[in-house]
Design a protein that fits this description.
Elements: H1 6-9, E1 12-13, E2 20-21, H2 25-34, H3 38-45, E3 49-50, E4 53-54, H4 56-76, H5 79-96, E5 102-106, H6 112-120, E6 128-133, H7 136-148, E7 154-157, E8 169-173, H8 184-189, E9 198-204, H9 210-221, H10 225-237, H11 241-248, E10 255-259, E11 272-278, H12 283-290, E12 297-299
Parallel strand pairs: 5-6, 5-8, 6-7, 8-9
Antiparallel strand pairs: 1-2, 3-4, 9-11, 10-11, 10-12
Helix pairs in contact: 2-3, 5-6, 5-12, 9-10
The protein binds S-adenosylmethionine (SAM).
Length: 300
């Protein structure tokens, strides 16, 4: 049975032009029914339409609300701190190589990570922070929030598979499971570019407990039915370590690791784990800067 997230179906963007593509409500309902998900089909059937197409303004408002709630998950799981504990030593290694410092968060949503890192200043003033997402409504809201807080970061519309944004380090959080396993190598390959020295992609660890944990968290902390639904589906469709690591090998110029994979940590705490890629020339400096935490790096 296909596991579909409603948020992936109700909005569509052209990867190359960035233009929005109108979405027929009946087609989304039919896909969800065919996947055996009647509850999700009912939710979409209640969404407003103009003619036969989902009303874009209503869809945008809904997705902004859901992503606003999703920030609680990032707070709960200390995601900004987790990125910082890898990024700070990684940037120490990169600085030693004399490269410029540009960190790009792919599929940034409302830019929680980028805004948080900008607000704390933990990476240092020489680091440019950029968030990219193909959803214009989320990028507009991320920009509004950053301006309200006078943060030094920017947000850009772009597709993860056609990235115009160059980065020294690419990041993502909660994005890998949105791509089918056979598309994942392309995602990693797109980041193996001349100026890129590393990447850190955190996503849900595919464990037997993950759907239960996601259900509990989303019942407790989220109100939007769409968010609750997609949260549990995310955990059920999360890619296993082997799938992620074999896809990451498509970034052939990087050495890749899992950071603190599930089997190395408390099974009740590890909901997210990172795949880390880094140029071979930087590995020794990165390990040194990581200190004791370097033990959490597990080669694929
Ligand atoms: C579960 S959300 C995570 C958002 C954010 N990283 C966070 O942790 O709050 C997944 C995000 O990936 C974005 N996304 C999905 N496919 C994408 C693609 N092909 N290119 C760019 N962004 C994409 C969605 O628009 C959405 O904002």
């Amino acid at each position: 049975m296909a596991m579909l997230e409603i948020s992936d179906l109700v909005v569509e963007w052209d990867a190359h032009t960035g233009e929005r593509i109108a979405v027929r409500r009946a087609e989304v309902v039919a896909r969800l029914r065919a996947a055996g998900d009647r509850r999700a089909a009912r939710m979409v059937r209640r969404m407003p339409v103009t003619g036969e197409f989902l009303e874009p303004v209503a869809v945008d408002r809904l997705l902004v609300r859901v992503h606003t709630e999703l920030q609680r998950l990032n707070e709960e799981l200390h995601m900004a701190q987790r990125f910082a504990e890898l990024l700070v030593p990684m940037l120490t290694a990169v600085r030693a190589s004399g490269s410029r410092l540009r960190v790009v968060d792919v599929g940034c949503g409302l830019g929680f990570m980028v805004r948080n890192l900008a607000a704390s200043g933990v990476l240092g003033p020489d680091v440019e922070l950029v968030g990219v997402d193909f959803n214009r409504a989320l990028v507009a809201e991320a920009t509004r929030l950053a301006e309200a807080e006078r943060l030094s970061c920017t947000f850009v519309c772009a597709d993860a598979f056609a990235l115009a944004e160059e980065a020294t380090v690419y990041l993502s959080s909660g994005v890998l499971h949105h791509f089918a396993a056979d598309k994942l190598p392309e995602f990693f390959r797109a980041q193996d570019r001349a100026g890129t020295l590393a990447f850190i992609h955190y996503d849900i660890a595919a464990t037997r407990l993950a759907p239960l944990g996601a259900w509990l968290f989303h019942r407790a902390r989220m109100r939007e039915p769409l968010g609750r639904h997609d949260g549990v589906v995310s955990a059920r469709r999360a890619h296993g370590d082997e799938v992620v690591m074999s896809a990451a090998a498509a970034a052939a110029g990087m050495n890749t690791f899992l950071f603190e994979p599930f089997r190395h940590t408390n099974p009740f705490c590890a909901a997210m784990r990172a795949v880390v890629g880094i140029r071979p020339a930087l590995i020794a400096d990165f390990r040194r800067a990581l200190g004791r935490r370097a033990r959490g790096l597990v080669a694929g």
